[in-house]
Amino acid sequence: MVPSPLALLLALGAAATALAEPLRFVDCGSIDGSIQEVNVSPCPTQPCLLHKGTSYSINVTFSSKIESQGSKARVYGEMLHVDIPFPIPEPDGCKSGIQCPIQKGHSYSYLNKLPVKSEYPSIKLIVKWELVDDQDQMLFCWKIPVQITS
């Protein structure tokens, strides 16, 4: 079975490093949090070129406007204005760099990492990455353009 283009998007939304450059991103509905920065490594220019067989990291720095016992990530590949859900191996934000419980007014670094598999199709997509609190409200939501390439 060939993974969906969302898998490619997910790979873009992986875990970040301190060497990453801040990206221009679109906030797509952060309610319970405020994004300070989104870093993808390596992604020196946009759209991010995701090379098959390579792993990419994402680090999202955000502050919480609420208290929450936990958080859950959801990743989508957006094509033709349709969000296609992509399951990720570790959706639990508390296992992705965030110390839980989440406290109001505190700043957090969300980290994740996923490989871009060589069998993924070469395609242009929008990666949409959400992190929701324990009430299913958006701590953050961001989108960036990516291109999967050989």
Question: If you had to describe this structure to a student in words, what would you say it looks like?
Answer:
- This protein has 150 residues and is mainly β.
- The chain has one domain (26-148): Immunoglobulin-like (Sandwich).
- Helices cover 5% and strands 49% of the residues.
- It has 1 helix and 10 strands.
- It has one helix spanning 5-12; strands at 21-22, 26-27, 33-41, 48-51, 54-64, 71-79, 82-86, 107-116, 124-133, 138-149.
- It is elongated, with a radius of gyration of 14 Å.
- It starts with a helix and ends with a strand.
- The model is unreliable at 1-19 (pLDDT under 50).
The count of strands amounts to 10
Please report which band the strand proportion falls in: under 5%, 5-15%, 15-25%, 25-35%, 35-45% or over 45%: over 45%
Tally the structural domains: 1
Within the CATH hierarchy, at the fold level, what is the topology?
Immunoglobulin-like
Q: How many DSSP H or I helices? A: 1
Described by its quaternary structure, the protein is single chain
Radius of gyration: 14 Å
Shape from CA axes? elongated
Output the CATH class name: Mainly Beta
| Main pleated sheet | 6 strands, mixed
At CATH's second level, what is the architecture? Answer: Sandwich
Question: What fraction, in percent, of the residue positions are helical?
Answer: under 10%
State the order of secondary-structure elements, H for helix, E for strand: HEEEEEEEEEE
Q: Would you tell me the structural class of the helices and strands?
A: mainly beta
**What is the averaged pLDDT score?**
84
Uncertain residue ranges: 1-19
| Cα-to-Cα separation, first versus last residue | 19 Å
